[in-house]
Write a structure and sequence with these properties.
Blueprint (H helix, E strand, L loop, with lengths): L6 H4 L7 E4 L18 H11 L5 E4 L15 E5 L16 E3 L3 E4 L2 E3 L10 E4 L8 E2 L2 E3 L10 E2 H6 L9 H17 L2
Length: about 180
């Protein structure tokens, strides 16, 4: 179990692994222009081989054709991306659907697009020409992550969370800074 997660999300890791993917763009006409080097079928097979019955697969948006997820045995979570349809379009393919960013732990934000900030680790996609890790942002756009689902536990174990300041500590430090400025005037 991933104890870092908020209690309501720990169920994702109770019996298996938590995997993340983004920007599969299955069968999208502009897939080839985004730098994809494998077919939708090949990519779907990688996901099926990785994600098992007791696992959770979190898709960070831009699904493409959701039919490719019918044979994925994991519990499936979707955070909608900018190419995705209304949530109802994905019912029957995904078990949970979120229409916006989701804090799943004190310092872990899941989103489709990269979001600015220095008090959380933003795990996202959307940027097809970006780096896998850039500061406090982990970009899981499929072509950037070599088409493999990435383990949330492995991301946490890399130590990326260690350097992220506590948001409450940042607020206190800012308040001290303002007080010092007043005292010096």
């Amino acid at each position: 179990m991933i104890k870092t997660l908020y209690p309501e999300f720990r169920r994702w890791s109770e019996k298996g692994s938590v995997w993340l993917v983004s920007d599969t763009h299955f069968d999208d006409s502009d897939r080839e222009y985004m730098g994809y080097e494998i077919t939708s079928e090949e990519h779907a097979e990688i996901i099926r081989r990785t994600c098992h019955r007791n696992d959770t697969l979190i898709h960070l948006g831009d699904v493409g054709n959701p039919e490719y997820f019918k044979n994925v045995k994991a519990h499936k979570v979707l955070i909608l991306g900018n190419h995705d349809h209304k949530p109802s379009y994905y019912e029957g393919y995904f078990d949970e659907i979120y229409d916006g960013p989701l804090f799943v732990a004190k310092k872990i934000l899941l989103s489709h697009e990269p979001l600015p900030g220095d008090c959380y680790l933003n795990i996202c996609g959307h940027n097809h020409s970006g780096k896998l890790i850039d500061g406090y942002c982990v970009n899981l756009a499929a072509n950037v992550a070599d088409y493999d689902p990435i383990s949330l536990k492995v991301i946490i174990e890399t130590g990326l969370l260690n350097g992220i300041p506590n948001i409450h500590r940042l607020a206190i430090e800012k308040r001290k800074e303002i007080a010092n400025e007043k005292d010096n005037t």
